[in-house]
Specification:
The complex is a heterodimer of chains A (110) and B (472). Chain A has 110 residues and is an all-alpha fold. Chain A contains 4 helices and no strands. In chain A, helix 2 runs antiparallel to helix 4 and helix 3 packs antiparallel against helix 4. The longest helix of chain A has 36 residues. Chain B has 3 domains: 76 residues; 188 residues, no CATH class; 171 residues, 3-Layer(aba) Sandwich (Rossmann fold), CATH 3.40.50.1220. Chain B has 16 helices and 6 strands. Chain B has a 6-stranded parallel β-sheet. In chain B, helix 5 packs parallel to helix 7. At the A-B interface, helix 1, helix 2, helix 3 and helix 4 of A face helix 1, helix 2, helix 3, helix 4 and helix 5 of B.
Amino acid sequence: MTPPPDTAQLLAEFTVFALAVVIGFELIARVPSLLHTPLMSATNAIHGIVLVGAIIALAGAGEEFDLLTKVLGMIAVIFGTINIVGGFLVTNRMLDMFSSQGRRGGRSGK
Amino acid sequence: MENGVKVAYVAAALLFIVGIRRMRSPETARIGNITSALGMLIAVVAVLFQTEVLSLWQVAIGVVIGSVIGAVAAQRVQMTAMPQMVAAFNGVGGAAAALVAFVDLYRVESLEMPPGGVLGTEGYVAAVAIILGIVIGSVSFAGSVVAFGKLQEIFLTGSIAFPGQKAVNALIALAIVVLGAFILTGSSIISPVLAAAIIMGAALVLGMLLVIPIGGADMPIVISLLNAFTGLAAAMSGFVLSNYVLIISGSLVGASGTILTRLMSSSLGRPLGGIIFGAVAAASEDDDEDGEEKSARSVSAEDVASTLKYDAESVIIVPGYGLAVAQAQNSIADLVKALESEGKQVRFAMHPVAGRMPGHMNVLLAEASIPYDKLFDMEDINEDFDETDVVIVVGANDVVNPIAREEGGSAISGMPILNVDHAQRVVFVKRSLSPGFAGVDNPLFYDEEKTMMLFSDAKSGLDEVVSAVKQG
């Protein structure tokens, strides 16, 4: 389903890759250590983007491919979703605790 | 439609960048997280259009199952168990990346690669990306599983090393390279799919072996590094599928995760290379003086209370993981109130890795509604210990162990510590004299002049002190 990439496309992909790496390096400059854990957790959720790849794989496996690829694709979709949903929610819970404090020391525990 | 999908991908990638940017300050962090989540939603909807919902119900089932598991796990997890949770989410992400690469290899192999496999340049790049995706994703998954086990203290706790470990690792890495070469050259010795399956297995073993020798204290750094790995694996699957949003987000996480890892390891004073390759020798050398009994001054909660009340103007509290385990956040908050009503100055000294992860303890204290402005980073408060009357160390050990100042030998040498030994008095609230997570004994325990040991669970100990302060 994905057409094999030609050289121009490949070069474009490398360019994008290189630029994204530079942005990634620059993004995390001076983060207070207070935020290290939430930040790790949030970037952790973002690599759940692999779900997009998993969906492509599973969808592609839909017709021509055997059970093995379907099962593996399905596992990948489930795992990717856990990564995303769990990652963002957990980050949100951590950050909730900081912000509920800003709103005059309210309790945030359950 | 196809262009719409591409625009959506770019939008998603931009939202990730803005989202991470906003995570740099506590005020905007929450909105930053939501920004990234929105980007994710856009990307997932876009891919559903891209694949023309070919097998929507299958995808839907997978997404629903994954959402339920992820949401339940995220809601249920105790704040104390946060590092494990991040490790677990990272692990499943890594596994997903490896599986995507594997499925893609299967497809490429059965569709496009001619028998005996002659690939064009682009084909080689795709194949390399597939192999890297499998390897990095699997290493990240297996490593995260081990990290989870260590932090949860279910298995493989402590630093486990066996002779020839590095040689074994090198051999496994070599085997992966050789098998990868078989796939690339279309060798007929072994089918590409089988080779890839073996590579996956080998990478899983390698991931475990890499993390097993690393001690618990360094685990946050390892998780952060594996997080960066998984990002890279996602980027690889982006190359395989020619999908920009995967390339951008994956490399974004790979790069920012690397920087974050370096930031953490420098706040620990532990060079990254040393953690990964050096794997501090498990043996602790000060075990040999076990024969002689060292004595420590054990005190009651009332003793602590009267010291605090009559002999202290300034108090610094050093919270550690033991406080978190005992769920004593609220007790410590009560203590702060009680002392402040007596007119004492109370502050918290936060070691960069208090708890088990940078910022972890801040989260826990926030849970108990202790205001930010009482929390001081190590650099900001370390010189104030000299003028401090009493330091209360609750459930912490390694981060206040003066041994760390000495060169060489022990597992924590070189780690920056809080100078609690410079204060007039030190109170440890601790269950026993047992050493901390790093397994290194603390000489400060045996300084009978200065140190008072309140042997107790953090919560009940603090509660007793609080009521004694109020009564006395």
